[in-house]
Design brief:
The complex is a heterodimer. By secondary structure, chain A is mainly β. Chain A has two helices and ten strands. Chain A has a single domain, classed as Immunoglobulin-like (Sandwich). In chain A, strands 1, 2, 3, 4, 5, 6, 7, 8, 9 and 10 form a ten-stranded mixed beta sheet that branches. In chain A, a hairpin with a 7-residue loop joins strand 1 and strand 2. In chain A, 31% of the residues are buried. Chain B has five helices and ten strands. In chain B, helix 2 packs across helix 5. The N and C termini of chain B lie far apart (52 Å). The chains are: A mainly beta, B alpha+beta. At the A-B interface, strand 4, strand 5 and strand 8 of A face helix 2, helix 3 and strand 8 of B. Chain A: Keywords: Signal.
Chain lengths: 147, 202
Amino acid sequence: MKRYLLWLGLTALLAPAVQATQADQIKASHAWIRLLPADLPAGGYVTLDNQGSSAATLVSVHSAAYASAMLHQSTTDPAGNSDMHMLDRLIVPAHGQVSLAPAGYHLMLQQATHALKPGDTVDITLDFADGSHQRVPFQVRPANATD
Amino acid sequence: MKLSRFARLACLLVAGMLLAACQHEAATPWQLTDISGHMPDLAFQLTDDQGKTVTATDYQGKVALLYFGYTHCPDVCPLTLAHLHVVMQRLGKVADGAQILFVSVDPARDTPAALHAYATAFDPHVIGLTGSPADIEALTKRYRAAFSREPGKEGGSYDVSHSSGIYIFDAHGKARLLATPTDSQDKLVHDLHLLLSPGGAT
């Protein structure tokens, strides 16, 4: 009993010193993929909530279901021309939220390793700057799904 | 004294003009941007997603929604087409008087077969159109819808920057409205309902 209490005290003392990883701080929700026909590149979307007191930086994503998965951003200029470019990183501020949603940040998923259909679930792993990872299940939805 | 009288008169004039402008604004039934008389009539010769040569006259009698895009566009193009699918559903039966023309600005990759699979994945009112680069460029220029190819990506893939507006033509092929991606589905439903109603296209 005495020993147990000692251990309890020790872990309580040590716990604050152990920094939560960036992946631990992130709560992922509303994760889905817009499936397009004929293995066309698909868009992946997810809402990231940072529940930690420091920023978390997403640096890449990967999945066994796609040969290529990239972080992208669509932008539309005032003239109405839309454009897409790759991102090196995406910062989720402390206690903040970043949405990967249509016409903004998104995952560009290419070359599915096996045929997918609406209703399937695909695991995509988020890779953070501190080397931590989080595996997120994405729901596969039809081409004409709305957010 | 003379000056202040002049100033008062000027104020009255300006106020009157503003009021007239407001009244004019209220008189137009459209919620989208009215482009009547500012854009040329619908005209093109392209290949449809069944491989058939088509011209604008093939769609006469339908309210046409012209949208430029490409199938290797995973984000913005599908979002627009998914929104149009919801708009068509909300319009119900009258939606059958509308035709969504998805014109590919990437004819090198968008074959009629690829376009057919893509178009039908969204809505039965969508028809994919492709053609020679020259014919497509002529059509984009006609509606001042710039597009460009961005080279230099690995694996020979590339992105296409393109105009994201939806050009709406009445059943006579006259340019009537322009919708931008930020325009709500409500506005599209409202205006298309008007255009599709009997006498609405006049």
